[in-house]
Amino acid sequence: MATNYATVTWDQLHRDARTLASALITRAPFKGIVAVTRGGLIPAAIIARELDCRLVESISVVSYSGESAQDQKEPKVVKAPVAAGDGEGFLIIDDLVDSGDTARVVREVLPKAHFACLYAKPNGKPHTDQYVMEVAQDTWVLFPWDTAPLFVPPLARNAN
Ligand SMILES: O=P(O)(O)OC[C@H]1O[C@H](OP(=O)(O)OP(=O)(O)O)[C@H](O)[C@@H]1O
Ligand SMILES: Nc1nc2[nH]cnc2c(=O)[nH]1
Ligand SMILES: [Mg+2]
What we know:
CATH class: Alpha Beta
Order of helices and strands: EHEHEEEHEEE
Bound molecules: 1-O-pyrophosphono-5-O-phosphono-alpha-D-ribofuranose, guanine, magnesium ion
Oligomer: single chain
Number of strands: 8
Structural class: alpha/beta
CATH architecture: 3-Layer(aba) Sandwich
Strand content: 25-35%
Distance between the termini: 29 Å
């Protein structure tokens, strides 16, 4: 299990995706965007809207089965991004790089594409061309689609 958790709200995610889009403007226009499923789908949709990019392809990668680094297996591509060729002129979007294994496998498939993500842990940083915010390696990022608001009892009830 991760030592710490960092909760990202929908508002924060939207802001960070727009920040990434504005940092990518100088490289636009892209021929298209490749979203790394599933976590890259919503960031890719926001960035496609901001960059006015209509061609959105996906690469489906399966690796983690739970919420820690121990739950990771070698990532497997279960759907190829056929519309993106070797990636030339394309932008790859994922939500984050952690070990960097997913990004490494995606880049093998699309060697000429530009890889960008919202969050990067230190081990993943060498595998991404661009990111918005660094997160500690021992922190598990909780995305808005991973979480739900729940009742928390008042502090005073646990005081004695
Ligand atoms: O750098 P890594 O250690 O490979 O981790 C990063 C990957 O892990 C998560 O995907 P996950 O495999 O959990 O699948 P999902 O996107 O379908 O939720 C995340 O969306 C990245 O794609
Ligand atoms: N939700 C989530 N998925 C991940 N996959 C690899 N690292 C992470 C993380 O920190 N959070
Ligand atoms: Mg993913």
